[in-house]
Write a structure and sequence with these properties.
With 574 residues, the protein is an alpha/beta fold. 23% of the residues lie in helices and 22% in strands. The protein contains 13 helices and 19 strands. A hairpin with a 6-residue loop joins strand 8 and strand 9. The longest helix has 20 residues. Belongs to the GMC oxidoreductase family.
Amino acid sequence: MTIRDLRSAPHNTILRADIVIVGGGPAGLTIARELANTKIRVLVVDSGGLEYDIETQALNGVENVGEPVQRSGAETIGRGYANELSWLNDIPAFELRNRLLGGSSHTWLGKCAAFDDMDFASRPWLRHSGWPFKRRDIQSALDRASELLNLGPNVYDEGLNRLLRAPPAELGISRDLLRPFFWQFSKERGGDRQPMRFINLARDCDAANVDFLTHATVTEINLDRYGRRISSLDVSSLDGKSATIRADTVVLCGGGIENARLLLASNSVAAAGIGNGRGVVGRYLVDHPRATLIRFTGPGIKAAASQFNFFGLTDRRKTHFYLRGLSLSPEVQAREGLTNCAAYPAQVHAKNNPWAALRRLSRGTRRTALADLSTVVASSGMIASGLYGRLVHKRGLPHKSVELRFDVMAEQQLDPESRITLSDSRDAFGIPRARVDWKIGTVEIESMKRFGRLLCEEFNRVGLPGSQPAEWIAQDDPGKASFIDMAHPSCTTRMGNDPSNSVVDADAMVHGIDGLFIAGSSVFPTGGHANPTLMILALAIRLSDHLKSRHRTGITMPQPFVDAEASENDLSGV
């Protein structure tokens, strides 16, 4: 494995590979890992390098003409980042992307869940719903993705209770209305509690058949003269170096915005953009609208937190913690024509929360040392019982909090007018920026509102008092809601069997363009409510298996990384 920097290359270098992966984020690096140590020559091309660079990051700029918008009188809740990552809440919508090896994993929190069985089904009340395969067909890939992410078992419904060391008590909530739902969090191996950073996959890759080219932005995808097959890629660095990469197979792994943008901007042969003969590229843009549904204050916080917190299990000598929340039942979705939604607890900790005081003391923070020591002493009972619950019963720590709220992430019904097009504004390479028009429809707003009311009703009915609906729900006024994107853009190059409403086929190859594949959330046929990373990796692993089979059939043969015809531009010294 070699990491090369295009900025140090000779001008007009010509490179060859069997498979070129465009984008070194979780999807691209997973595919590279799956193809490592095969006879397939792989080149991973990334716009950035190993470190954050402000000029490279500026290439993510978009023209945003849709949601999210600030509604008068609505509370701003942000994307949920806290502490040292709180600044990420202020990144403009659809620009929270990372142009360096590791991609979005540099700023994620590790939150993972698999899509539900019903997400794969065709639902008559939701247009364009349904995947070209069922969840069971990718279960093996999901399990492989879970192992890569250092997760526990792929169980996210109430079946998890049978595996937990100390499961939550049965509250008696109607399963016809609400269902338990769990999330888990990917962490680095080796005891590091940081979310998994995929840049380590690149650093640790020692496969001779995998190379990396950094600071290389793809400026155009070139097709053959008939517009039916991938031909080459044009790449450039910000300092003016350029290269051509020739490959039999190209996999776009640029994310929900850039995959569509690059197809649309590559219009030298196909005037409307590659794969866009039916005008589908960039359409059906969804994210996960996030909003607050209900709040607990006062004594109700402790009761709610005891039921909706972290619960642990030990699997293969590792302890994994799952966060418990609730989702709309499939039955109520079908009866009332709603989208899939799930809500999770978020506590606002008090200033005298003892665990924060302990952390500051352990870090030697002198400014608050006396106050923190006093807080710890006054809360010794909570600390002792919390540690016992954590170590023995594998429960989440109890906190002193001023509020516990349930925030929702909702599935969106597909809307062809929610879309990405090309802006008149251009980036440093002269490529049109993405013009993003994200729309939040009535169906998903009504789904969230109904969900919030059901939560209050059921909590009160089973004796979990103190919940209050968010103001926008209580007053039945969506204009007072604060909907925020979760940086999960999806479905813009969606997968399907019908080219009239999809961009790639069930194998993730662009309809009618041999050798051009797409990975990442942009190929999701529907967005579901779950965080996308686990599903992104499962589909990337599934695609990797297909690519191995494709190249084993003799479609391509391994060739040198540097084109023999351009040996004067050998990169071995770069």
